[in-house]
């Protein structure tokens, strides 16, 4: 399980209403406890989702862990805690696609042939004794 540092999270935030100046209560987002429960319940299924897009286990684990880190850092922006899993799934898909793009770019760069250049030995004009 990831180590998630507890942060004081307010259950609700008072925002001024645009009608008449009254205040209304808005949910403050996903709590750390809810995110920990989501991790316990859905980590394997998110790994499976990443495995559909990526081919190696290490990359899948990295993508899922990064998704949880990003959701944790943006948990106050997730207004409905019930949508945390959907947000995680979308983050896993986006991170997997980014990883694939980086791999494809790397393969394209590696597949380009190196330019033909003379070796250092061929360019030598003197021998070891100093004569030509």
UniProtKB/TrEMBL annotation:
Domain called RNA polymerase sigma-70 region: residue spans: 39-103
Entry's Gene Ontology molecular function annotations: DNA binding; sigma factor activity
Keywords in alphabetical order: DNA-binding, Sigma factor, Transcription, Transcription regulation
Protein's UniProt keywords contain DNA-binding: yes
Matching SUPFAM superfamilies: Sigma2 domain of RNA polymerase sigma factors (SSF88946)
GO biological process: DNA-templated transcription initiation
InterPro entries in UniProt: RNA_pol_sigma-70-like, RNA_pol_sigma70_r2, RNA_pol_sigma_r2
Alphabetical list of Gene3D superfamilies matching this protein: 1.10.1740.10
UniProt key word Transcription regulation: yes
Superkingdom of this protein's organism: Bacteria
PANTHER family the record matches: ECF RNA POLYMERASE SIGMA FACTOR SIGM (PTHR43133:SF50), RNA POLYMERASE ECF-TYPE SIGMA FACTO (PTHR43133)
Stated name of the protein: RNA polymerase sigma-70 region 2 domain-containing protein
């Amino acid at each position: 399980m990831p180590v998630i540092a507890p942060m004081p999270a307010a259950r609700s935030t008072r925002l001024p209403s645009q009608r008449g100046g009254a205040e209304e209560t808005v949910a403050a987002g996903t709590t750390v406890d809810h995110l920990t429960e989501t991790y316990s319940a859905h980590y394997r299924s998110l790994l499976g989702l990443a495995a559909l897009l990526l081919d190696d286990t290490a990359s899948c684990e990295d993508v899922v862990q990064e998704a949880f880190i990003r959701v944790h850092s943006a948990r106050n922006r997730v207004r409905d805690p019930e949508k945390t899993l959907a947000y995680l799934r979308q983050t896993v898909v986006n991170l997997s696609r980014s990883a694939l793009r980086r791999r494809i770019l790397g393969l394209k760069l590696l597949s380009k042939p190196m330019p033909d250049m003379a070796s250092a030995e061929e360019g030598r004009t003197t021998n070891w004794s100093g004569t030509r």
